[in-house]
Amino acid sequence: MALLIILITCFVIIFATSQPCQAPDDFVAASSPGHIIIGGLFAIHEKMLSSEDYPRRPEIQKCVGFEISNFLQTLAMIHSIEMINNSTLLSGVKLGYEIYDTCTDVTVAMAAALRFLSKFNSSGEIMEFKCDYSSYTPRVKAVIGAGYSEITMAVSRMLNLQLIPQVSYESTAETLSDKIRFPSFLRTVPSDFYQTKAMAQLIQKSGWNWIGIITTDDDYGRLALNTFTIQAVANNVCIAFKEVLPAFLSDNTIEVRINQALEKIIAEAQLLHVLKNVTFMDGGSSFHFDAHGDMNTGYDVVLWKEIDGHMTITKMAQYDLKNDVFIVTDQETRNEFRNLKQIQSKCSKECLPGQMKKITKSQHICCYECANCPENHYSNQTDMDHCLLCNNETHWAPVRSTMCFEKEVEYLNWNDSLAILLLALSLLGIVFVLAIGIIFTRNLNTPVVKSSGGLTVCYVILFCHFLNFASTGFFIGEPQNFTCKTRQMLFGVSFTLCISCILMKSLKILLAFSFDPKLQKFLKCLYKPIPIIFTCTGIQVVICTLWLIFAAPAVEENVSLPRVIILECEEGSILAFGTMLGYIAILAFICFIFAFKGRKLPENYNEAKFITFGMLIYFIAWITFIPIYTTTFGKYLPAVEIIVILISNYGILCCTFFPKCYVILCKQETNTKSAFLKMIYSYSSHCASSLAVSHVSLDTTNSNVTTTSRSSGGKSAAWQKRKDFQAQVFACICRENATYVSNALPRKRTSSI
Question: What is the pTM of this model?
Answer without folding.
Answer: 0.52
